[in-house]
Amino acid sequence: xxxxxQSPRHKVTETGTPVTLRCHQTENHRYMxxxxxxxxxxxxxxxxxxxxxxxxxxxxxxxYSVSRSKTEDFLLTLxxxxxxxxxxxxCASRRSAATNEKLFFGSGTQLSVL
Amino acid sequence: xxxxSQHNHHVILSEAASLExxxxxxxxxxxxxxxxxxxxGQHLQLLLKYFSGDPLVKGIKxxxxxxxxxKFSFNLRKPSxxxxxxxxxxxxxxxxxxxxxTFGTGTRLTIIP
Lengths: 114, 113
What we know:
The complex is a heterodimer of chains A (114) and B (113). Chain A has 114 residues and is an all-beta fold.
């Protein structure tokens, strides 16, 4: 499996506080993605990146921002966390835009917003 | 926009039973299709994928899937399940030329020994 690490693995925070989740990959993959996983909704794309400083919104981007200053790092920020953002967050990456390329996933971050 | 439907939310089978999980997508054209599996406490892993050629695709651990373009379907099958197949299964679709992958809501599979 590709070397994708997410940090932290677990986080509990309070409503209204900012939170940043980090995704780090060692595969030199160009494309990186942030998904959230919720019961009954499967995985939904929050934001993705197609290169350094190049990002775009997914289907559930409201309340989230991202940054990619280096190929290996993709940060997801919740500017002001809400309870509806309690979820498991997965980072993924892939080498190219070829649509038959598989995604490699990180182990996830369990975020609880109280 | 592409959408993916997995109508079976939770499937419970006994060991050695045959398995078929449904997956339908909404948008036509050239598509790439994937099945991912998430074992308890683990991250998602690719089971198999289809992008062209033979519509019957074989993956790891004895799984296979058949792409039926006329039905917009990509159902996952396994002739004889094992307890270790207990996991959540996700179907995913990408349209040719689109970097985004759309996932279904997942099917939780529980195998009873």
